[in-house]
Write a structure and sequence with these properties.
Chain lengths: ~400, ~60
């Protein structure tokens, strides 16, 4: 049988690509064909996915010969740019700790009340404007955008610039220079602000101030590294949380009995959020690795230089771990999903994402009990050609 | 039960603090794990087991 082309297609917009269920049954690894004619392996079973994400023989570096990519534009970007998730060893620890410091459970909890106020204000503004309107730009993207710009210490007025360039950075169906140019724009923006703060940090209580004062000034990280951390946080704070808020809302609208369960028992909000993360897994294309030696995954031999995609969405729908996995069930109690990946590169901002989602779903349907789609579900355009799954617009009424 | 951590390898994801906040906390300088209670009571066995299970860097163990 000829290998399927990658990215895989979906027949149901709110479920993972159909082929993954078959791949999980057929064997530990599945073969796919990439945009440039080369082949790669998909790791699809939960146990193999977690093991692969811990395996040091699988390199995350795009410099590794054989490193597979999603598209021509992605290949251009990963060759030109530095991703924190591509760093290893001491370099990774150094950068990771600077980010983790800003995103601890304690720091995130300190933002919770502010997030509540922002959510209330955004909903009030939606009500004042009146339906129908686009849920993505008025709410789902606006909230994480307001939160991350305030935490970084940059003006929210620049949000369209961040949102547009964050979107273009992860788009796959664009010319190869587009993600690179979007990254350069973001880099230039943060470089200018950081240079000013390096000269005079001021007394701001924000991430960019601390990057300049506590990390660049002490020589812990370079100016260039601080710039990368800044646009990494702005990007990660936009695309992922924004799309999760949108797709989580859609899941609740499409599963009204689950919405009712959650509304009748607020203790289910936290489990509902974990279930949205598990069921949706917005990082739809998985984690990219290259084998650095001949080895086995799940018992199947692979060769040095083989490209591998570790499929988080497939692991999160493995019936060995999650019975009836395609059912969206807000009463599941497992928190062992890999929506934020696993291993040393697991999402540094996951506690912030969780908190924003918890606060949104605690009030959204209370304040807008008749919230619903303003167009037929079938007309929604899902982002199949993007690293992060979602929709660009979601027309709603109430 | 006795808990051990390997702070050197911790990546500061905060999952242990999320599930067992009386046992674990994070270093304010770099987000890495700090043991608040190295010998928690058996009442906390389920939370500790979950923290061990979901730790992405596998730095928590119990004896």
């Amino acid at each position: 049988m000829t290998a399927l082309s990658y990215p895989l297609s979906r027949s149901a917009a709110l479920s993972p690509p159909d082929a993954l269920a078959r791949f999980r049954l057929e064997g530990p690894l599945a073969r796919v064909r990439l945009w440039n004619g080369t082949g790669a392996w998909l790791v699809t079973r939960y146990a193999d996915v977690r093991a692969a994400l811990l395996d040091k023989r699988l390199s995350e570096s795009p410099k590794e010969p054989g490193y597979p990519t999603f598209s021509e534009s992605r290949e251009a970007l990963v060759s030109a740019d530095t991703f924190v998730t591509h760093t290893q060893g001491d370099e990774h620890s150094r950068l990771r700790r600077v980010m983790s410091r800003e995103l601890t459970v304690k720091r995130v909890e300190a933002q919770r009340e502010k997030v509540r106020v922002i959510i209330d204000r955004l909903i009030d503004e939606m009500v004042a404007k009146g339906p129908p309107l686009d849920f993505v730009s008025h709410f789902a993207l606006a909230l994480p955008s307001l939160v991350i710009t305030e935490m970084l210490g940059v003006p929210y007025e620049d949000h369209e610039f961040f949102e547009e360039n964050s979107r273009l950075r992860v788009a796959l169906d664009v010319p190869p220079d587009v993600p690179i140019r979007a990254t350069e724009e973001l880099a230039e923006y943060f470089s200018k602000i950081l240079r000013a703060k390096e000269t005079d940090p001021g007394d701001g209580d924000d991430i960019l101030t601390r990057l300049a004062r506590d990390h660049i000034a002490t020589g812990a990280i370079s100016h260039r590294e601080a710039v990368i951390l800044a646009y990494t946080m702005v990007q990660a704070g936009h695309e992922t949380t924004g799309n999760m808020l949108t797709l989580g809302t859609l899941l609740l609208l499409r599963n009204p009995e689950q919405l009712n369960l959650m509304l009748n028992d607020p203790s289910l909000i936290k489990t509902a959020v974990e279930e949205m993360l598990r069921h949706t897994t917005v990082l739809q294309l998985g984690m990219v690795r290259t084998a650095t030696e001949d080895m086995e995954i799940g018992g199947q031999p692979i060769r040095k230089g083989d490209g591998i995609f570790i499929m988080l969405n497939s692991a999160n729908h493995d019936p060995e771990i999650y019975p009836n996995p395609d059912q969206f069930d807000v009463t599941r109690t497992e928190r062992n999903h890999v929506a934020f990946s696993y291993g040393i590169h697991q999402c540094a901002g996951q506690q912030l994402a969780r908190m924003e989602m918890q606060e949104v779903f605690a009030v959204l349907f209370k304040k807008l009990p008749n919230l619903r789609l303003a167009v037929p579900f079938e007309e929604l355009k899902f982002k199949h050609q993007a690293v992060v799954y979602g929709v660009d617009t979601l027309p709603v009424t109430w | 039960m006795l808990i051990r951590i390997n702070k050197d390898k911790c990546i500061g994801a905060g999952n242990c603090v999320m599930v067992a906040p009386t046992v674990f906390t994070q270093d304010e300088d770099d987000g890495r794990v700090i043991l608040l209670d190295p010998n928690p009571s058996e009442d906390l066995a389920a939370e500790v087991a979950e923290a061990i299970e979901i730790c992405p860097a596998k730095v928590i163990s119990r004896e």
